[in-house]
Structure formats: structure tokens, C-alpha cells
């Protein structure tokens, strides 16, 4: 089977890809958490290569962990390893092998993942952000899953699949969901004699609390597109149209503009406060 690109299994922020050019390994689309969905795909994608193998020799699929092997105690890694072990137990003709990042790896960037996909030993499956699917697709690093899957057999909402579809090609499948939650340190709030975060908090209340807690100054709000999306969403307007086809009328909506202005003001005020704090330290 001569195919360029790599199949994937993906999600909103962290998809997973399958690379059909990953060395001489058997190219099958699998990921333990979604194995039930993709069983027919796995059978179809390797029909040619299986003829070259012994009937008793299991097909080997390499799953690239984005953690070093020393991180096996990480809860996220444990979930994946448990899923892989369960899949291998149920499928004697397929063996999923977990590959790890080099020892000492503390963070994997998008550039690191692209480097792996472009290498001669590209993994069969690897985690990948949906935001970069189009870039990887343009480089022909990914495989069109619609070539080997029955759309009707997928019980994944079409709007979710659209996130990873480029020019009619399905380049990813979701494997997890990451809800947004608020986490706070109770001791910090207790020390400042402040009430704990409430669901009805306004932006202004958040800013006021942040200033009281962060006495040294500096913004406590991430200045990125995710933060802007959350703020605009809290005002009732997303940054993209519901079908994900356009940002016109959404990214430039009054709600999004208000959110961006608030972010800028908060960020600049925090930076000014931090600068004043440092000047006080230098002159004292």
C-alpha cells in the first residue's frame, strides 16, 4: 500500500494522527478509547500488507506518547496505557506499542510534533492540536480517513468532525474532551479575606479580585485566543459562526470587541502595576 500522509485520530485541542508512511509498520487506524468506532477501519486499511505477514504475527501499530516514559504515573498517561492494554487484550491480531519522548522532556511543542510527522520514522498515531490540522493537511502529512471509513458508522456529531475536515477530507477523529473549569487556591483567598469564586462573577469582579490577590502586579489572565473565546462566549457570542465557516460578524462582533478591549486593559494595567512594583523594589 503506497499512501502519502497520515491518518489521525483527533480532538478539539489534542487530536491523534495515524501516519501511513510510518516506516514498514502495518498501517492501521486505531486508538484504544475509540477502538469500537474504528474496528472496521482497521481491517480495511491493511488488507494488502496482511498478506505478507504470518497469520500468527500480530500487526504492530506505534502510538506516540507526548510524555517521557518516566511520566507513566501521570493520570493522563495512565488512562492511555490502560486503554492500550485493554485494546491489546481484546485484539490478538493487533499490537499497539507505546513510544515515548526522550527522557528529560518537559514540554512538547507543535514544532516538535511536526518534526516527528516529517521524520523517516513518523509514528502511526500521535496527539496533535486541531488548530494545526489545516497546516499539516496542506503538507500532505495526514491521511483522509473518509477513504477507509463509513461515515454512517461513525456516531460522532458531524459538527465535531467538521473541526478536523479540510477540503472534504476527514483528517482527525476526537478521542477526548477538555471542559473549561475554574480552579482556585482556598488558602490564597482566605489569606486575603475574600469570598471564594462564584458562578455569577462578572469580569469587573474578577479583575478586582485579581488585583487584591496579585499584590506584586502583573496580569493573571492568559493573553491568548482561548481566553478571548471564553470571554466572548460569556457575553453570548463565539468567535466563529456555528458551522465554523466564517469569523466575519463574529470575531468582529460588539461582544468580541468588548472582550478584547477588556483583555487589553486588564493586561496593560497588570503590566503597569508590575512595573511600578519592580521600581519600588529597586529604589527601596
UniProtKB/TrEMBL annotation:
<dbReference type="Pfam" id="PF13416">
    <property type="entry name" value="SBP_bac_8"/>
</dbReference>
<keyword id="KW-0813">Transport</keyword>
<dbReference type="GO" id="GO:0030313">
    <property type="term" value="C:cell envelope"/>
</dbReference>
<dbReference type="InterPro" id="IPR006059">
    <property type="entry name" value="SBP"/>
</dbReference>
<protein>
    <submittedName>
        <fullName>Extracellular solute-binding protein</fullName>
    </submittedName>
</protein>
<comment type="similarity">
    <text>Belongs to the bacterial solute-binding protein 1 family.</text>
</comment>
<dbReference type="InterPro" id="IPR050490">
    <property type="entry name" value="Bact_solute-bd_prot1"/>
</dbReference>
<keyword id="KW-0732">Signal</keyword>
